[in-house]
Amino acid sequence: KRVILIGAPGSGKGTQSPVIKDEYCLCHLATGDMLRAAVAAKTPLGVKAKEAMEKGELVSDDLVVGIIDEALEKPSCQKGFILDGFPRTVTQAQKLDEMLQKRGIKIDKVLDFAIDDAILEERITGRWIHPSSGRSYHTKFAPPKTPGVDDITGEPLIQRKDDTAAVLKSRLEAFHKQTEPVIDYYTKKGVVAQLSAEKPPKEVTSEVLKVLSS
Ligand code: AP5
Ligand code: ZN
Predict the structure, then answer these.
(1) Which Pfam families match (predicted)?
(2) Which of 49, 56, 145, 211 could make an S-S bridge to 167, C-beta 3.0–4.6 Å?
(3) CA R_g for the chain
């Protein structure tokens, strides 16, 4: 399967990805995670992306298109993949079409994580992540067994620099202006399935698995 997850910041894309990944043995390509790793490692890509990310703006299309084009070559991505946070502009969607055409493959489903903006601040400000695995927790909705510590590795959890109420405003603005048109782009192709992302995580998981098995 080749799946795209689209949704506002905090809608649950990163939370549902491991479930889809395990169920279908797919590779999980999250441009946000890859960019954060590049920023932490201070690579040339990270240096270019840092400022926009901290302001809650999108980084340039060329940067993210390059990362995805490279990642699609990985052996682990040949059976299928989950794109989490890409494409987020119509230009990125068009470039993705070219990358897929060149490889003779197609997207099977685009999952639209529908959620009201008002719910997102609490989700974003309560999130704690385990940076090396990308696992995320929430102080109220998905607490780790020990506060501040990853359940599996015992390593410390951190908060993302852009997970503040103020930066969330810019991220939401970017979502509505630049990413919502991407949902229309795929609706015209007839591959979009809308999920109610406001439900508890397990219920969202059942919806996701139902849509993907149909
Ligand atoms: P990115 O990392 O993609 O951030 P985002 O889109 O803002 O999405 P989030 O990771 O915040 O949300 P999520 O849906 O994964 O939520 P999660 O499941 O963790 O991008 C970051 C930045 O990188 C961008 O701002 C941009 O600068 C840059 N970038 C990335 N891709 C780009 C691209 N293609 N083009 C240009 N720039 C790009 O859930 C959130 C919290 O809620 C967690 O604590 C979780 O435990 C909890 N939760 C999840 N589901 C539920 C539920 N059902 N009920 C209750 N709580 C829940
Ligand atoms: Zn995410």
Answers:
(1) ADK, ADK_lid
(2) 56
(3) 16
